[in-house]
Amino acid sequence: MKTIAVIGQKGGSGKTTISLGLAVQAVKAGRRVAVVDLDPQATAANWGDRRDDKESPAVVSCQASRLSQVLETANVQGVQIVIIDTPGKSSDAAHQAAKKSDLVLLPIQPHLFDIETLASVSDLLDIAGKPPSVVVINRAPIQGSRHDVARNELVRLGYKLVPMVIFQRAAHGDASNLGQTASEYEPKGKAAQEMESLYSYLINKL
Predict the structure, then answer these.
(1) Range of 57's domain?
(2) In this structure, what is the dihedral angle of CA atoms 36, 37, 43, 46, given to the nearest 10 degrees?
(3) pTM of the predicted model as reported, rounded to 2 decimal places
(4) CB within 10 Å: which end of the chain, N or C, has fewer?
């Protein structure tokens, strides 16, 4: 069983959208998948309740203190990929998720405020045992070059980045209202293509 934690210390970076998008991509690839929702707002779990297929991916809402037990159960049940969706501004949840993960994904918006949070996240990852991590620029404006400016700054600061950018596209929000992801709602759309590329990149890292 392989585990990816999606972590960030700032709200609004799109952690849940990415978590669910990756989970559905893994299902499409034929994997048994579980999403563990550590956010008290239970956004991912609520999304799971809206789905027609409530079993794939399985979505489990739990507290950070229960993460080890949930992962053990998932492993016994033959789950192959676990995506852990963490809340913003919760060091304990992020720390527990990072400790249990094979790879940590750090979504940020292409803004200085988001980039500045990565320093505290890096400290958290050090405490968690330095699991492999990579940054993805998410919710980038479709027009303009803000994502390129952010990428250059992140490279200058020494962060590892995925080679693709996830842009702000309406399909993500429209899909979530129906308990879907962009790859289900608009399979041939750009949002779906971007998420598929991100999944393919990350799965090769595991």
Answers:
(1) 2-205
(2) 50
(3) 0.96
(4) C
